[in-house]
Specification:
The complex is a heterodimer of chains A (171) and B (425). Chain A has 171 residues and is of the alpha+beta class. Chain A is built from three helices and ten strands. Chain A is elongated, with a radius of gyration of 27 Å. Chain B is built from 16 helices and two strands. The longest helix of chain B has 30 residues. The chains are: A alpha+beta (171), B mainly alpha (425). The structure holds protoporphyrin IX containing FE (HEM) and FE2/S2 (inorganic) cluster.
Chain lengths: 171, 425
């Protein structure tokens, strides 16, 4: 190859810069659709609300409802259970939060049943009147607050509104 | 790939073709006349076994994919359909599922061989790194494959593993939603996992080609850990190593076939014959046996992000091995102290696997932590220090000296081994 350096920019220099610039912009604009196609699609997003009928849930009973493909725990808490869970001092909690801040109506605990460790569904049980995760042993209390690791956070409280005192819409 | 290119096409067509695409010459120099150290033991046959298993997985996988349906409503039934209705479907599926197990068994032996004989040391660092990449791709492939039958273990295994990414600070939830294509593992997840499970084995095949290319630049390491110095130290690949590898593959296949035909569900989990149910987690989640040591490491740490990071670190540490081991002696045969720590490391890995298969209790957490500590101390403290502190035994002057020294005299060698390669005794 001969030496092509000249003092003045040549047509080839212009073409080199223009081609590279358009090439980079073009590649970048194709990468985003390739990545974004994996995000939740319109049908998935459309399924975002679920209505729950609370009438059949007896005091002390737990039910599991599916919302956005995930389980939602609904528990009808007797007054004694509410009293006990509200008496727990904040200093004993891994993720301190009052029960009052986690419910709209003291009787009804509504939380997403996805363990905040790695996403298993906890079963009713454990030492805190709440749930025990079968995967790695996390435990939650009757307010859905984590009481034993490895889970770092309390069970998530979803957005919900009471349409009537016995019907709630989650989402 | 290097090696003497002495290929002379025999036919006129061969000569015509070779001038246009010299692929026969490449095969000839890579797998016929390629000089291999003459002292390779059976641990060196696992590369051949692994290549065979990759082809077997691709063959059984592509045929399974002709009958499998990647849809959350149909996947479980399509696998049962393969088992009951498709001609030899049961055989293809059992070969594929047990094939994954055999693949990992072989890769663990292959890697421990490398660790014991110091095969990652200069000039084979890139070869080793390519191996680590293959190992990562294999883990991703096997994980996604296990999701496809859409049983309870498939579903909850996928949930736990994808949730590892929710430990990422700030972006964690966006990353998991992106991986799932939803708010939890579901139909979109299954569909993309199938697509990637189909793709990754072919990427593995590509990296395997690079791995063999990088191998053929310096040639194989060997049990003595000294490089070949003369043609007396090597033998041509064919017939010596084609036969040896072939024999090992056949023995390995008998072992494999025993599982396929007599205990096909030995490595499986009964819960995976229950269709996936997003509302109920099985009482106990256990991954496939080849992931158990890492699972034990994850569970030994009671905090989420540190647990996930430690687990990834336990795999990533392999990539740093060439620079962590400071000893100038390659082969563990001549390192009396290293040998002891090596075997303790092997036991530690098996121990972690056992802990990973057990229900969590205070005892398993304690044992897991002790083993996990040794695992990292071995890589990060023992290997760097041992190279400086240990007095190695006398390393043989050459491969033939090592062979003769071990056997006492040339007379003890099998007929032909001492002959020039071209003589073939
Ligand atoms: C690196 C090679 C591969 C490994 C380690 C691997 C591993 C696995 C595993 C562990 C399973 C679950 C088996 C079960 O429990 O039923 C599986 C299933 C499956 N794999 Fe692969 N695979 C590989 C290559 C392939 C290829 C190339 C294809 C081609 C499309 C494929 C297609 C399938 C299909 C359709 C299933 C679902 C049917 C079933 O569950 O048996 N695999 N794979
Ligand atoms: S997923 Fe619940 S403890 Fe790990």
């Amino acid at each position: 190859m001969t030496d092509m350096t000249t003092a003045e920019p040549t047509r080839r220099d212009i073409l080199y810069i223009a081609t590279t610039a358009v090439g980079i912009v073009g590649a970048a604009s194709v990468i985003w659709p390739l990545i974004d196609q994996m995000n939740p699609d319109l049908t998935t997003l459309a399924l975002s609300k679920t209505e729950i009928d609370l009438k059949p849930v007896a005091p002390g009973q737990n039910i599991v409802v599916k919302w956005q493909g995930k389980p939602v725990f609904v528990r009808n808490r007797p007054p004694k259970m509410v009293e006990q869970v509200r008496a727990v001092p904040m200093s004993e909690l891994i993720d301190p939060e009052t029960d009052q801040a986690r419910v709209q109506v003291a009787q009804w605990l509504i939380v997403v049943g996805v363990c905040t460790h790695l996403g298993c569904t906890p079963n009713v049980g454990g030492d805190y009147d709440g749930w025990l995760c079968p995967c790695h042993g996390s435990q939650y209390d009757a307010s859905g607050r984590v009481r034993h690791g490895p889970a770092p956070l309390n069970l998530l409280v979803p957005k919900y509104v009471f349409k009537t005192p016995t019907s709630v819409v989650v989402g | 790939m290097s090696g003497p290119s002495t290929y002379v096409p025999k036919s006129a067509f061969g000569r015509w073709f070779e001038q246009r695409l010299p692929i026969m010459g490449l095969m000839h120099s890579s797998f016929i006349v390629f000089p291999n150290p003459r002292n390779l033991n059976y641990f060196w046959t696992f590369g051949g076994i692994l290549s065979f298993m990759l082809v077997a997985q691709i063959l059984t996988g592509v045929t399974l994919a002709m009958h499998y349906v990647p849809d959350a409503r149909l996947a479980f039934n399509s696998v049962e359909h393969i088992m009951r209705d498709v001609n030899y479907g049961w055989l293809l599926r059992y070969m594929h599922a047990n094939g994954a197990t055999m693949f990992f068994l072989a890769v663990y032996i292959h890697m421990l061989r490398g660790l014991y004989y110091g095969s990652y040391k200069a000039p084979r660092e890139v070869l080793w790194l390519l191996g680590v990449i293959i190992f990562l791709l294999m883990m991703a492939t096997a994980f996604m494959g296990y999701v496809l039958p859409w049983g309870q273990m498939s579903f909850w295994g996928a949930t736990v593993i994808t949730n590892l990414f929710s430990a990422i600070p700030v972006f964690g939830n966006y990353v998991t939603a992106w991986l799932w294509g939803g708010f939890s593992v579901g139909d979109p997840t299954l569909n993309r996992f199938f697509s990637l499970h189909y793709l990754l084995p072919f990427m593995i095949a590509g990296v395997v080609i690079l791995h063999i290319w990088a191998l053929h630049v310096p040639g194989s390491n060997n049990p003595a850990g000294v490089e070949p110095k003369s043609s007396k130290d090597t033998l041509p690949f064919h017939p010596y190593f084609t036969i040896k590898d072939g024999f090992a593959v056949v023995v390995f296949m008998i072992f494999f076939a025993w599982f396929v035909f007599f205990v096909p569900n030995f490595f499986g989990h009964a819960d995976n014959y229950n269709p996936a149910n997003p509302l109920v987690t099985p009482q106990e989640i256990v991954p496939e046996w080849y992931f158990l040591p890492y699972y034990a490491i994850l569970r030994s740490i009671p905090y989420k992000l540190p647990g996930v990071l430690t687990m990834f670190a336990s795999i990533a540490v392999f990539a740093f091995l060439p620079w962590l081991d400071t000893s100038r002696v390659r082969s563990g045969t001549y390192r009396p102290v290293f040998k002891v720590f090596f075997w303790v490391f092997v036991l530690c890995g098996i121990g972690l696997g056992y802990i990973g298969s057990q229900r969590v209790s205070d005892a398993t957490i304690l044992a897991g932590r002790l083993l996990l500590t040794y695992y990292f101390v071995f890589f990060l403290v023992i290997l760097p220090l041992l190279g400086l502190l240990e007095t190695p035994r006398q390393v043989p002057a050459s491969i033939s000296a090592a062979v003769l020294g071990a056997k006492g005299a040339a007379a003890a060698m099998p007929r032909g081994v001492g002959a020039e390669p071209s003589v073939k005794g």
